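note to self: the first set is below, dont mix up w the second
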Amino acid sequence: MFRVIDILFSAVGLTLGFPLLMVIFVVGLFDTGSPLFRQERVGRHKKPFTLVKFRTMTKETASVASHLANASSITRFGHFLRRTKLDELPQLWNVLKGDMSLVGPRPCLFSQVELVREREARGVLNCRPGITGLAQINDIDMSTPELLAETDQRMLCSLGIRDYFSYIIQTVSGKGAGDRVRQ
């Protein structure tokens, strides 16, 4: 049932949001010269997939987890995209393709060995990663791997249709700060 909702919402979001996506893309061209950010992430069953987002940091920024990146790498437009969570919109393509779900554990990097191990031990990697979830609306990020994996597991064990929509609504309405970046 969640997959059907994911397909429907991502298709509608990409279609209706196309003008906004194009505006952000063009502004991103002027901001960084490369508005899309692609990065290999850990997917369902530990299979790699390429996550797509709008770029919020300079092109020279090291490809690391957000909490390991330096805040000075975030561009002025990038701050706006992160604050409004508009940088996440291209992930609707990942949802439509089946790499991700709207709700699920945020996909991590393969280099985040401790988090991958914690998630694997709790069965979290048996599910599609998501754009948002319980951890995101509660400001739990990847800098605390054990807590994040526990929160992801708790969410997945009790995820119902009501929670699914609740996490989306809370995210869209601004709850949760997103991935933290070092100051």
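second set (the one i keep forgetting abt)
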Amino acid sequence: MRRIFGSVRSRATLGATLVVAVALVAAGAAVLLSLRSNLMDQAGNEAQRTAQNVVAQLAAGKAYDQLDLDDESPVQVVDDNGTLVAASDGLERISGTATDAVKPQPQSGGTGTGAGDDDDDADDDSGRGEAGEIGEGTEFSDGSATIDGESADYRFAAVPVEAGDRGRLTVYAGGSLDAEQSAVNTALTVMLIGFPLLLGVVAGVTWLVTRRALRPVEGIRGEMAAITASEDLARRVPVPGTHDEVARLALTTNETLAALQTSVERQRRFVADASHELRSPIASLRTQLEVGVAHPELLDLDGAVEDTVRLQGLAADLLLLARLDAGERPGDARFDLGALAREQAEGRAEVTVEARSAQVAGSRGQVGRVLTNLLDNAARHARSAVTLTVRREGEWVVAAVADDGAGVAEADRERIFERFVRLDEARSRDDGGAGLGLAIARDVAVRHGGTLTVGRAPAGGALFELRLPQAQ
């Protein structure tokens, strides 16, 4: 059960079905209430018309026993004392009116029921009264009645009338609710049968639509599972041609796989290059030590120290790169880049410094390492002079290192920032190092929110510009 309702398709189908069910129930209830209200109003209007017809006769002074009453609908005429004075023929039971009496009460002098001697001329006018006026303010009530043995529910209208010397009378007339009950029952039956069928159609359509929509997602999941099992990052997930969110998900997944593949390949290449770079000084140092053990007089201490220093520097570079790759934050300490530049150039006879004071934020040690790497690189390629300048440019602080060497070809200006890359003229490890200095410099610049670029210096050599945001 958990597996069934744990799928997106099942939850979407269930959710859509529940929403439609709630909407159908609300709409059905509104339709039933509206239908019942309209039919009730119709029954009330019918009852009111019947009552007003009797009221008109009473207002005209017609006797109780001569009233034209509807024999198919319940009609009562009640005086101000609540006494039934006239009723429709065949009325056997009634409820919902002022009185449940069904037989009119005899009036004083025998009037009101039509009883008396036919040959008595005095009785010809019994039950008559003076003409009256129709009152205002019809009231409605619900009840039931039995006429000629048939019981039914009715909507009763109570209409008052001033009947002259007979006082105030109230006419109760009923409008049948059979049509209302039949229509409501029919509509309810249709809803009870139709709503489940409609919900079944909605659920089926939703299930099929979501199945079709999620089929590419299942393809992506299956391919990702295969990539995970095979560890083949060169594979890519299928991209549907729908140009929707699923297609964008597939494209983003492929971009992530490509970035992951590049990162893994870069990591492998880095390990291989680091192992290669470490092998040479370690092998050289071992050879010198082995020769020193066998022939102490041939031990080259200066060479051993040089290889040790080179090995130490390479290990420090690799450690810094590892920390940068791990996402080490540079910090937010403020320091003067101009003062740092003068400090890094101190003791370098070939370097000319023109550094203005400018505040930046970050790691003073890492930025100092960048300046050191740039100055070392310029010193290796310069013919005679290196210039270090620090200036402000709007919201940026620019540290520029220029030399008068051969410069960097435009095709190589991005490649030199890759790890373990050395140009052809700097292939010697003694000259060009391990090829990590510029890569470290750019990584540090980027992590400080800045940039490191290379161009052509005015003297024809290389011009490296480090741009860092000015501290606020």
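remember for set 2: The domain at 245-325 is CATH 1.10.287.130 (Helix Hairpins).
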